[in-house]
Design goal:
alpha+beta
Amino acid sequence: MKNLKSPPLIQLSDFDGIFEKYNAAVYEIFKSDFVINKPVFEGKKLRLKSHPCIDNKEYTYYHFTHSGNIENERIPDLRRMERIGFPKPMINCSKSNKLKVWRNKRGNKYRILIFHEEEKYLVVLEDRKNFIIPWTAYYVEHNNRIEKLRKEYKNRNRLKKRFLFSFNTWSMR
């Protein structure tokens, strides 16, 4: 499927500004998209990072809907929450011409980035060799971050050789 259609935003105002109702509805979408009906990327099924469980919700949900650099101090991010319907179609339709998809290495982690530039939305997957973990997803607010993503995508072929060498060396261990 090459044509990707962005789902509607799920807004707090749709729930009369009641965050608890909103969070429950956002989680139901996540649960449907990632727990009950898991997406597939390049033929590999995705597994969730479930632990630590936060408020009886998978850790992946927490990373898709909260922001912050210190794990136990992350706060709900309405821009992430309102776009909870974006990750699954982006993963399933990763060959869409609306998406930029590339691989990179951050530290010792092998990541797959799926960027919908028009929507300013990024999905990050972690490649664990035999399966893939949806790591995080977020709205890209700052133009300098968008430029960095564009540049990394543009340079992906140069980096691909280094990545493949690293990945092959890593997978032989």
